[in-house]
């Protein structure tokens, strides 16, 4: 007489029991793999959906009318005297301005994104302390945004 199909004869650990209702190790492992696969697909789908949503939002820094060449010219005229042509400040000033190139700034743009850009935009527009002058009277909003993109290229 055969046992019911859902019952299996176990060897080893369950030696004293004739029949066992518990699933075998391979069945447990298969179920675990299936659960992990479902969780992975769920997380991947959410990541893709969230990434697509954020990439469609428009940044005020994405559509600039000022070209890169004009931004370079603005940098040389307005900023290079203190911050240097390549973003490294000149040594001759009594108060040394911020260094605008390097790993820290790149990580700020990478992880801070538009918040970082807006902070630099406000600093150029409004100035900072006694050392950084305000350029709101001299430069348009587009030109300031182009300078922020120029700083991001360092």
Structure notes:
9% of the residues are buried. The model has no long low-confidence stretch (mean pLDDT 75). This protein has 2 domains: 57 residues, no CATH class; 85 residues, Cytochrome Bc1 Complex, Chain D, domain 2. With 154 residues, the chain is mainly alpha-helical. It is built from 5 helices and no strands. The longest helix has 31 residues.
Furnish the topology, listing elements before pairings.
Elements: H1 25-55, H2 68-83, H3 103-112, H4 114-126, H5 141-152
Summarize the structure.
With 154 residues, the protein is an all-alpha fold.
Low-confidence stretches are none
Sheet-strand content, in percent, reads: under 5%
Number of strands: 0
Taking the alpha carbons of the first and last residues, their distance comes to 81 Å
Q: What is the ordering of alpha helices and beta strands? A: HHHHH
CATH superfamily of the largest domain: Cytochrome c-like domain
Taking Cα atoms only, what radius of gyration do you get, to the nearest Å? 31 Å
Output mean pLDDT: 75
CATH topology of the largest domain: Cytochrome Bc1 Complex, Chain D, domain 2
Principal-axes shape call: elongated
Oligomer: single chain
Structure class = mainly alpha
Helix content class:
40-55%
Number of helices, counting only DSSP H or I runs of 4 residues or more = 5
* Tally of domains: 2
Task: Please name the CATH architecture of the largest domain.
Answer: Orthogonal Bundle
Please describe the biggest sheet, giving its number of strands, its sense, and whether it closes into a barrel. Answer: none
CATH class of the largest domain: Mainly Alpha
